[in-house]
Design a protein that fits this description.
By secondary structure, this protein is of the alpha+beta class. The protein is about 35% helix and about 30% strand.
């Protein structure tokens, strides 16, 4: 997978969490996903389509990580995953995709974004609708981990 396509997603994740939640997210070593199981407990997923690119993005947060992020974003302690957390994950996914879209458009890549969907639950499945490899980039925050999945044809 082309780093020129992956790096804008990583930059966007770091920027969104730093700005919106005042949290430092540290990326780990990318790897190719071999199954369909989500690595986190709450996932936001969005499709991307354009003339040059077709793909998808998933942000899959452990419960501990998303509760820390939600607490940072809302400025008050959040201690359970509920529908408001699902909405927040959808918004984070939307913000990350929007920033990425801007960065990639400056490099000549144009695409449209679908409306993000969210999934809550342990060991849920994620199906990327494209035929390319799924690259996972693990991230850590103080409370736990989350995973960025990017897939392009």
């Amino acid at each position: 997978m082309n780093a020129e396509l992956i790096n804008p997603f990583l930059k966007a994740v770091i920027e969104v969490l730093s700005t919106m939640a005042r949290i430092e997210a540290k990326p780990g070593k990318p790897f190719v996903k071999k199954d369909k199981v989500a690595r986190g407990d709450v996932t936001g997923m969005v499709g991307l389509a354009g003339k040059q690119l077709k793909g998808s993005l998933a942000l899959s947060f452990s419960e501990k990580a998303i509760l820390q992020i939600a607490t940072g974003m809302l400025g008050e302690p959040i201690d359970q995953v509920d529908d408001s957390i699902a909405d927040m994950v959808g918004e984070i996914t939307n913000m990350v995709t929007g920033i990425t879209k801007k960065i990639l458009s400056e490099k000549g890549y144009k695409f449209e974004m679908a409306i993000p969907t969210t999934i809550i639950g342990k060991n849920h499945s994620l199906t990327h609708k494209t035929s390319g490899p799924v690259i996972i980039i693990p991230f850590t925050v103080e409370a736990g981990e989350f995973f960025v999945e990017v897939c392009f044809e």
